[in-house]
Amino acid sequence: MVPSQNDKLINPHTFLKAMQIGLVGKPSAGKSTFFKAATLAEAAIANYPFTTIKPNTGIGYVRVECVDKEFNVQCNPREGFCTNHMRFVPVQIIDVAGLVPDAHLGKGRGNQFLDDLRQADVLIHIIDTSGSLNAHGEPVETGSHNPADDVRFLETEIDMWYYGILERGWEKFARKIQQEHQQIHKAIAKQLSGLGVTEEMADRLIEDHKLNRETPSSWQPMELKGLATAFRKLTKPMIIACNKMDVSVSQKNFEMLQKEFPDYTFVPCSAESELALREAAKHDLISYVPGSAGFAVKESVPLSDAQKKALDFIKGYMANHNGTGVQQILDSAIFDLLRYCAIFPGGVGKLQDQHGNFIPDCFLMPANSTALDFAFRLHTDIGKHFIRAVDVKRKQTVGKDYLLKHRDVIEIITGR
């Protein structure tokens, strides 16, 4: 079936704010193809820079092994869908225009495109692993461009974007903080709140960087740049989607990238293959569940020789890479990088809502979320009148400080 369309300090996710994944990279690296494959939303796709100007937004899905099987029922999702007891939970995806070197200085309208990323919880950097595009996204001989340069360039652009926001008017800002005896970490958190920086985060990083809290006007540009980079790493964690892995030279580049950047997660993918499969499934030519290692051609459907050849090629790629990689990247961004957990509301002996739907909801919660956090996620009044929670799988009462685990089924008991 195909749809139609870290802890709290590290990931300050507002419960009422929709989870958002930002797709970034240089022009023509495959962002819009990845976006369309993940959402089946219409997006302009072309092999030239700045096909995308305004950001595309759509709904993608992350996979969770559904708990319905453990209760011998079939769930009825209110949002998303469930196939073969695999729950697909919706997340928002934003595809911004391609970034070029010196984007933070406004090159290629880069400042505007960077601003589109402000609300993103996590970034997926899509690179052309085949090395067939230069730094500006223009076609070059396959294998002639080093994709490691793309990883470095994007880091630099986002770091310098953060630095520009932090540094803008710094001298006047710092003097005011000193004169009014304000706490510097609170002032910085307020200044960078639009990027997801919290007071706790600012307090810790100022301490880690051994910056003088009493005289922020003495902080040097290199110290501000170091602080900006640290904020970027915490508020915009990034996974690298190694696109165009179906090109022969890409495997060698992929292995090189893993060695050169051991702190990053690199996931091989072929966005073009995923898009082809989702379109084929949409037109009922094949049976395909996103994230699967294969697909099945429907026997009653006649395929042209060209279609058979294309599907055979994709099948071979998937056999070597355990899928196309697109769904795996989305899942890894949320569950491995952000370390979110999926929580199902329910009750002991009561898994249906008032309409008879089994386990209709599934919520994504930050790591180290508590039962009380979940109560507030459900509704402010539920959080305010929280008495206790019940771990439905174990049929065990838990308190407000109970740390949620991935795939927990939780009942909230209130005083009203």
Short description:
This protein has 416 residues and is of the alpha/beta class. The protein has 13 helices and 14 strands.
Describe the protein's architecture and organization.
The protein has 416 residues and is α/β, with parallel strands linked by helices. It folds into 2 domains: 20-146 and 237-336, Rossmann fold; 161-232, Helicase, Ruva Protein, domain 3. The protein is built from 13 helices and 14 strands. The strands form 3 sheets. Strands 1, 2, 3, 4, 5, 6 and 7 form a 7-stranded mixed β-sheet that branches. The protein has a 5-stranded mixed β-sheet with strand order 11-10-14-12-13. Strands 8-9 form a two-stranded antiparallel sheet. A hairpin with an 8-residue loop joins β8 and β9 (296-297). The radius of gyration is 23 Å and the shape is flat. The protein starts with 19 loop residues before the first strand and ends with a strand. 43% of the residues are buried. Mean pLDDT is 89; it is low at 1-16 and 43-52.
Keywords:
single chain; alpha/beta; Helicase, Ruva Protein, domain 3; 17% strand; five-stranded mixed beta sheet
Number of strands: 14
Distance between the first and last residues' Cα: 41 Å
Along the chain, the helix and strand elements come as EHEEEHEHHHHHEHEHEEHHEEHHEEE
Uncertain runs: 1-16, 43-52
